[in-house]
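tool_log.txt
---
The assistant was asked to compare two proteins side by side. It first ran the structure predictor on the initial sequence, then on the second. Raw inputs and outputs are pasted verbatim so the downstream comparison step can read them without reformatting.
(1)
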Amino acid sequence: MQTRRRYSHSFFFAAVATFSLLLGSSVSLANEYDIMVVDQAGKSVPNAVVTFPDFKAKKDERTAVMDQVDQQFKPEVLAIQKTQSVDFPNSDNIRHHVYSFSRPNHFEIKLFSGSESKAVTFEHNGVAVLGCNIHDNMIGFIYISDGETLGVTDNNGKVSIELPKEAETSEQLMLKVWHSKLSPLSNEHIEAKVNGKEMKHTVTLPMTIEDKPENSESMPPESSGFKKKFGK
């Protein structure tokens, strides 16, 4: 009986050690890179899409969400994968008429409220510019990737992106940045090369972020809206 107990205890501790080893290995298989995007004046740039084209992301089967809150698209920039679907709930107490003229990802969701709309599947990579046929001040963007690893900067211009461990062996790691102010109708990028051994990087875009005017909410749609910017 003592021999069996010793064997059981040994087997138990061996199993725990093996599990711990596997767990530790899985944790160390990736590194997190912190990217800061700024403009020419050093001001943080929100809603910039940062991509690492040499690293493919896992296929995302989830339905993404582009909400409508206070007559604005939330988030302003949504990054998804090609063939991924997007739901367009309306959290306002008024109706919206969402559309995009961006080919080949053009679509239209006529007057709706609440969760009446159906999800839209985006079959082609690129950028879909969103507008509302009723509220011209509503402008949003859906960035459709071809499967590369990416992230969107927050209000502080920062984004953390996880890459495979192998990325740290590269001294010339390719990084691309898209922003609506640089390329609103297409997915043209600013390219940069960074050292994969360093986990923190700052990328400067050739543009200037303008402060939002205090009276922007009272500005007439024709001076700041979709039709003014895109002529649609």
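(2)
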Amino acid sequence: MENPQTPVKPSREWHCASIDQALAWQAATVDGLSTAEALVRIERYGPNRLQQAQGRPWYRRLLDQLNNILILILLVAAIASFLLGHVIDAAAIVGVVAVIALIGFIQEGKAEQALDSIRNMLSPQANVIRDGKRTTIPAEALVPGDIVLVESGDRIPADVRLIEARRFRTDEAALTGESVPVEKQSHPVSADVDLAERSSMAFASTIVVQGNARGLVVETGRYTEIGKISELLRGVEKIKTPLLQQLDRAGRVLAIFILGAAAITALLGTLLHDQPAADMFMAAVGLAVAAIPEGLPPMRFPKVYPPLSPSGSRLVCKAWRSVTPLFDDFLQ
């Protein structure tokens, strides 16, 4: 049964509410919560942490690099070469495939780490007032209604409605992109102001660069502004952009041409020039391996949201430069 003193979690415009109104909404006081009430609220609201998405294991990410028709052609050629006793040729082909797969594996790993890093932006500890006394607790134990104390150098542990602020400024670059620290104060602001203009609020994951403040925790975990961004990233559907769709089409067309040319070469050598079938097969394998552009298979990797990683824009530029010559031949 729910504790009648524990408030239901409504959607509030905390930045435009007065201090007294915010405290009333959270059924809290400036002296903080009791330990017993904090335990009740953490059962209701959950811990103050961002949810982790189930990531792909490393071996799955590595195997995904082989899910490409051109890579499969190379692997088949390597197996056939090995069965015919051409071990050195088979090793060379496997080496090419390994390099291509390793590059893609590293690129995707960096992109996924960039996405996961947002979940590590919350402060590990928080200074709060519990039972009328200042104490330090794990930030995960914060609940709406807690009174937190922050000072220069601290990371804000949750979304906070400021009650007192003394020459208080925060760095909100990670959240709003503001390049300079933002002045904060405790007076309410207009309801329709943008997130970057809500000077009566201090947001989770932002850093205090000057002053100190006391504030009322109003949102925790996935309900914070940074938590909402994390939830949006968790819900992003992986789709193929028009560029990636054209790259897949180019790969299929190129594979057909390569296989066709290799087969014709082997047949002409065997039937018209009476060359040994094994030799002509190896010639066809060599033609196929040489015709596959080593830069094309990794071009599937930008689908891991490269704009969210520092190296993303460079990756897209490299992909475009590698693929542009193919557009003229296969995409018209």
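---
observation on (2): The CA atoms of residues 246 and 300 lie 11 Å apart. Strands lie at 125-130, 133-138, 147-151, 159-171, 182-184, 201-202, 207-219.
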